[in-house]
Specification:
The complex is a heterodimer of chains A (191) and B (300). By secondary structure, chain A is mainly α. Helix content of chain A is 70%, strand content 0%. The longest helix of chain A is centred in the middle third of the chain and has 25 residues. Chain A starts with a helix and ends in a 7-residue tail after the last helix. With 300 residues, chain B is mostly helical. Chain B folds into 2 domains: 33 residues, no CATH class; 183 residues, no CATH class. Helices cover 66% and strands 1% of the residues of chain B. Chain B has a two-stranded antiparallel sheet. In chain B, helix 10 runs antiparallel to helix 11, helix 11 packs across helix 14 and helix 12 packs antiparallel against helix 14. The termini of chain B are far apart. The chains are: A mainly alpha (191), B mainly alpha (300). Chains A and B meet through helix 3, helix 4, helix 7, helix 8 and helix 10 of A and helix 1 and helix 2 of B.
Amino acid sequence: MARDQGIAPRDESFDSVLAAARVGAPWACTAIWQEYSSAVMAFLASRGSREPDDLTSEVFLAVFDRIPRFEGGEPQLRSFIFSIAYRRLVDELRARSRRDEPTAWTPELDPRAVDSAERDAERRLGDERARQLLDELVPDQRDVMVLRIVADLTVEQVAEVLGKNVGAVKALQRRALENLRKKVAPTRTPA
Amino acid sequence: MRRHRITETDADRLLAGEIPAGRADDAALADAIARYRAAVSVPVVRPSAALRERLELGGVPEVSIEQSSRAPHAALVSPFGELEPGSGSRGARRAVGGLLGVGIGGLLLLGAAGAAAAAGAAGVLPPDLQEGFDAIVGGDPGGSTAGESESGASTSDGAEPEGETEDSVEPSGAPSSAPVGVPTSPSDLPTNFGQTVSDAAHDGTLTGREFGRWVSEQAKQNGNHNGAGNGNGSTPQTSGDADESAVADDPGAPSGGAAGGPDGGTSGSTGGASNGAGNSGSGGPGKSGDAPGQNKSDKD
């Protein structure tokens, strides 16, 4: 899998990168950051984080603090990183919920929607619609879909991140896809 | 119309933005998922300051734009201050480098030229060189040379020491190419002066401080004659100090050493007196007087 090779800079193997990251080698931490930071931030942003940049950095600081105790290969590391990201996200959403702030994503709160308003209007509308579709899912289904699509996790990895069993994740995934299919299905209009 | 159940395989294809085989009716769903993936993708993530300390972001584009835009300027910060990129900084660096380059080779040449000029001004160059020098600066070549030998006894045997001087000094070539302070352009006067001092030392009528005082006076007189009208009365002190080390390291310098050589004990004190004379007298005679004594005492 290309991802397995992607983390290793300077022709190093994943094990070498991980071993170096465990002792805090900056180049190894950078390799991990480069490999996963975009996906983590996309996950956090799409799940409603108000400051995904800062939260992403917090996630990776926690990752680097805990990586000396980490055991496993690349799939496990990916799950490990997104587990931390998910917990951080839940903390933020809960904190905002206690303050009675809205937690759901809205286009007005998404900074990326502001700059792209003038160009590619048609496509933007399509993208917004796509985001809207997933945001209309119930939270559990949405979590599964976002982790599957954005974080590129397997069902097993999603189960590990969310702390659910694999069967439950599969069921959530299937129901989410069926709900989406209903929403995107072309409406039949009488001739 | 009843839709089919989404299998795990279908789910994997749909989540990858692909249409499952034989499920063309799911094309819209696949497209929506692909659009969602593209919409939420984040090309650049800026690490926080705390995280940046743990990363190695030298050429990584994730470095904040402000930081990367400042990097070229930071690279030009030098001990001389921050240099702006462009021809100005290159010019400044070139100028500094040029000055530093001149410092070694150029200063030696300048020093040699200065020494030659000082010697010429003092009238202690060899006659032909002195003539050329005086012609350039408008002096009187004959006058200064003629007036140099005030001490009658020394003047009479001026030709002989001149030959000695040439033997000991001329191998170095043109006077202008010699380093500062080395008496490469002796004339009759310093050689005669050394001879005079040497004779006086052999004579034995003056010893110790008295002899030194006498040598000093002789040197002053010679300096006053040679330096009259040249206005270089202040330079000999400096060049005389510099001569001490320069002459001591120069094996070709002892033009008068032969005179003091035979008499070991006396010439030792003579050397000391000569040093004193050189320091207190004018540059030309002082240099010449320093050389033998210093070398002599080194040899002893």
